[in-house]
Structure formats: structure tokens, C-alpha cells
Predict the 3D structure of the following.
Amino acid sequence: MKDILKLFTLQSMIAIINQIKVAPSFAFDTYFAKSQKGVMGTSVNIPIKKGAGIVLESVSPNAEHLIHDEGDTYMLTVTLPRFPLESVISASDMNEIKALEGANDQAQALSQKIGELVKEHKDSFMTTIEFMSVGALFGKVMDGKGNVLFEFSSGAAQKTFTNAKPIIQSLNEIDDALVEELGTEVGYTILASRSFISGVAARATTEELFTQGQAKWISEGEKRILEVHGKKFIPYTAKYKNANGATKSFIAENEAIVTPDSADVYKLFYGRANHTQALNKAPVLFFTATPEELPKGRGYSVVSETRPIPVCVRPGALIKLKYQTA
């Protein structure tokens, strides 16, 4: 059996966890999956651009990190959070595998068992990373445990949608604001409260946009989304704990936020695993070590780890919106 375990090298274990498919994650898949950067140390310097009057609104007591004001940016020195997981291939599991005839059958059964454990690890990691990514979409740096470490806000006035203003006019104002902030036109999605979407839908009805084909309801996954003039208004009702530990909605009633489709706005930093097998190796987002024998014949340990921090580095591009009924 030990000869078969030798097949599961560090390279093959990393390949296993990278190849495992997990459930789609809206925030991570859409905004962070294509904007990742490995970090060799245990901390990372994150430049937060101060465009559009961005200010550091709050710092949590949990944020034991350095903050430097460098004129047009805040420089955050953040210790990368560490999320390790361990599962055990028990002695009884190993005995069942050894009972199979032939090394190939044993290797296949062991590979399946390892794959099941590693998938559990990756599913858990992605749940945590998705939660942190959602926070980053709203200008919050989160630690994966529900705590907001840093929160940024913009002094810029909210853009408004109203019963009396054509929707295209409000969308044009968003377009202009993004060009001013980012220097170029970018696509975007609008995450909104249900009341905000109801207001936009009512205005679209008044403008006869549904009959003209300029507005429609579409289904994506489990969500019913309003699309107007090619822009999606996605209902969002998730909550978080603020710096004082109080539960808050990411989006208040009759409000929404613009999330640009730009790699310049979002960054996912990740560090090297705190494991002897990761020494002198390049950082990877998902790390899994080779199975290690446990003492007293208890079986083998499968250890995985991730050290991520997703951040919005251009919070000025997260334009806040409000629907005014009067």
C-alpha cells in the first residue's frame, strides 16, 4: 500500500484539487477568478486607489494591520488569512482498499477516496472565498469569518433613478462616472435591492420598454433578473457583520451598487501554504499535501490549505445608486 501512496506526489495532489469542479460562485467566478496574484510572504501590500473621494470609513478591532496614507492611495499591509483543513483516511478504509485484487484497482480506489476528501476541502474553501469576494464587491476587506477588517466609502453623491427620469439617462450617468474613474468604458452589472428593481421595472413599464424589447425578465440560475437597455439588475439580499459586530445588509432598501467588469478593479491575493511541503514552492491558491501516515497505525492524513484575500482596489468604481420615488 505504501508503494501505491507514493504515486500521490505533491504535484499530483495539487493537480487533483485544481481539477475538482465546484459549484459556481457568483462573485469569485465573475470578478476575481481572472485577476489573481500569488504572494511569497505571509502578508501582502494592497494599494487602494483614492479616486472619487474614497475614504477609509472603519477599521475593525480584528484588523491588526498597518495602514499608510500615500497621497492618492491607501497602502494596507494585511496578513493573509489561513484556512487549513485535515481529513483522515482511516485504517479501516485502508484495509478495505487493500482487500481489492491488483495494484491498479487499489490505486483507483485510493484515488477516489482522496478525491472525495479533497473535494470536501475545496467546497469549504470556495464557500469562504465567495463570502470574502462578496464583501470586496462592496468596498470591504473581510477575513472569511464574517468580520470586516477595513471598509471604504466614497464621498461622491449617489446616482439616482427616479419615476420621472428616463432609465437610459441614469445609465448614461453611470457610464460617464466609470469613464471618469477608470479612464475607459467598461461593462458593468447592477446589484440591487428588490425594491430598487421594482422601481426600475415600473419605470420601464411607463416607458413601454418591455413592449419595445428594451426591457425583459430573464432567469439565471435561481435568480430572476431584470435587463434594461442591455444592463442587468440582479437582486441581492446577502448580509454581513460590520466592524461593531452588527448584522447589516450589503444593500439597503431602494439602493443598488454598480460592479464594473474590469480586472483593474478587483484583485485576489493568495499566499503560500504554511506546510513543510510548500517550502521553496511557488504559492498556489489551493494546496494539498501528499498523504501523511498517522502514528499508531491510525491511517493517513490529507491536509489542504488556502490563504486568500480578495480586495476591490478601486472602490471609487463601485458606484452607489438610489431609487427615488418622489
Observations:
- The CA atoms of residues 109 and 215 lie 53 Å apart.
- The two ends are 74 Å apart (CA to CA).
- The longest strand covers residues 83-90.
- Residues 103-137 form the longest helix (35 residues).
